[in-house]
Specification:
Largest sheet: 6 strands, antiparallel
Order of helices and strands: HEHEEHHEHEEHH
Strand content: 15-25%
Structural class: alpha+beta
Helix content: 40-55%
Amino acid sequence: MNAGASNVIVQGFLKGSFDVFDALLGQNFGYDATDVDDLSPGQLAELLTEFPVCMHAGVKGGGLVAVAFKDEDARRLAGAVLGEDEIAALDAAALETLKEVAAPFLGGGASNLSEKFQRDVELEEAQVQPDAAAAAEQLQAVLGDAVTVARFQFSAPGSFDAAAVLLFSQGIEEWVPESLVNLVFGNDEAEAMDGTT
């Protein structure tokens, strides 16, 4: 993992995604990525057991980007979109609602990265997996063996205080301009994060 590039991706993707949530839900979301690290292939199923509801989309050019939520937080999001309190279960209607949210949510993250990278970061059709641990093998096949995971907290005043994870194929790091890493982190810090000092 290139830590500098990964952090640029995490911050840029979450910024674009939560800008979309703000607009969709009429909320003012805050978020904070607390831990960005490598994820070994054997850890994916365990992680998705903790965060079983997964929005994901393939990246044109290779790889996958995904955001996984705890079940109760996914139900609260679906309820917020439907104008209801937290719904009792992720039934077919709730899953369809989440799928409708997934496309702009993930797309907002990709659009913000496109703007930052000065190149297209295009996603394929967004999907929602309500039991992502059961699909871990298929997701791993698209993610590849080199995966970055970022745990993050997100909240909105009076309605949300939740945790989730962002996963992406490390091949996307190659698209991050070195000048952008240096601009965000400063040259010395970027080199230290990349382990090149």
